[in-house]
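Entry: Glycosyl transferase family 28 C-terminal domain-containing protein
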Amino acid sequence: MGEKGGTMKDKRVVFVTVGTTCFDALVRAVDTPEVKNELFKKGYTNIMIQMGRGSYIPTKSAVENESAVLEYFTFSSSIADYLKEASLVISHAGSGSIFETLRLGKPLIVVVNEDLMDNHQSELAEELAERKHLLCARPQTLYETIAYMDTRSLVPYEPGDAEPVAKLISRYLGFPDD
């Protein structure tokens, strides 16, 4: 019953990406037994974490579902393949990761890094969450977001609709709204 006819047809991957940054709070949040068990309860079978410059190493154990797989790596020349394979993406609030995931039509939870001082990224994520293109969380609310998420309620992002995003960017740069 998998999305595409492969050898492991029921493999459902959660891909977690922090981009090139260090976002240990996100990796740590995904690594909690609560979050892992909630993802496995929802039918996801694998968690792949791209941990960037982070120093926190995820544990591969402490999950109720022994057949579940958690893997991690630091960097990849391209995360496109991981995004394509994913059934769910949990990402930092980098605009590149956000738009690449939305373009592929993947359900997305954006986790905002509250340690960043100049956090325009969170405004972008919150704006897109308001439009129901993605879900927005903080590291400490990730569990609730996953527990209550309904990916079917997400609205596909139409790349042609750049005006709201352009307005948002203009506002960040200090230009008045037309």
